[in-house]
Amino acid sequence: MKKTILFLLLTVVSLAVSAQDAQPKDSLAFKFGYLSYDSVMVAVPDYTELKTNMAQLREQYEAEQKRVENDFNKKYEEFLDGQASFPKTILQKRQSELQEMLDRNIEFKKQSQKMLSEAEANMMEVIKTTINMAVNIIAQKRGYAFVLNTDKEAVTFINPALGEDITEAVKQLLNEETKNE
Fold this sequence. Notes:
By secondary structure, the protein is mainly α. Helix content is about 75%, strand content about 10%. Mean pLDDT is about 85; it is low at about 5-25.
């Protein structure tokens, strides 16, 4: 059985090698483009607006969290100051109020972080859709089989003689679209 598998493996490899030899070495069956998606993204005018809006939103949430934290600290100090003189039932009621306040503050912080993440993701989705449409237009005009994103070391090597960097073309198309709006 091992001999049969080895024979089949050798047959497949030899067929693959002979198929490569049959194709002319100078012809390329397809063209492709590549770009730095991150570079294009930061060049989109809406990206700057997104970062500004997100910074303002974060500031608002942080201000509210600080206000709530100050309210809690004030209540806690009042509790500590009167702790020795409170009857047991009032002491328990105040402890319960502080715990509820702390729980609400923690929940608000979680919700605000979730809302900020969702807001940023929604805004980024609009920008990504715009970029993808621009890439699609350029790729179709130039007859590319595909377009690679070169960011985050996704592609180790691209032979510039076989592919074309379209980063600047996409930026230019997006700027033209922005001017036409």
